[in-house]
Design brief:
With 88 residues, the protein is mainly α. Helix 2 packs across helix 4. The N and C termini lie far apart (47 Å). The relative contact order is 0.17.
Length: 88
């Protein structure tokens, strides 16, 4: 379950709202749905993010999204740094 400490770590990479739509897209891509095959709602993702509901797969998706965003950010920073070195 996401605690305040965990949320602060996630907020550093995902922002205050946790990019719920981004994580919802990941859940859809991974095939994580309700038992009846319907996708989980945005409010449910929000409740999981705030720790009011527990769903291990979705919690793991938040961490995977944070890692993915961090890696993308680091790659962009490295690319910009390399470009600056070449032009500077």
């Amino acid at each position: 379950m996401n605690t305040n400490k965990h949320r602060k770590l996630l907020e550093e990479e995902l922002g205050k709202r946790g990019h719920i739509a981004y994580v919802m897209g990941l859940a859809k891509d991974e095939g994580i749905t309700k038992e009846n095959g319907m996708p989980y709602s945005r409010p449910f993702f929000s409740l999981v993010y705030t720790g009011k509901k527990e769903h291990k797969q979705i919690e793991n998706l938040f961490w995977a999204a944070a890692i993915k965003k961090k890696n993308e950010r680091l790659e962009l920073e490295a690319k910009r740094k390399k470009e600056l070195q070449q032009t500077g």
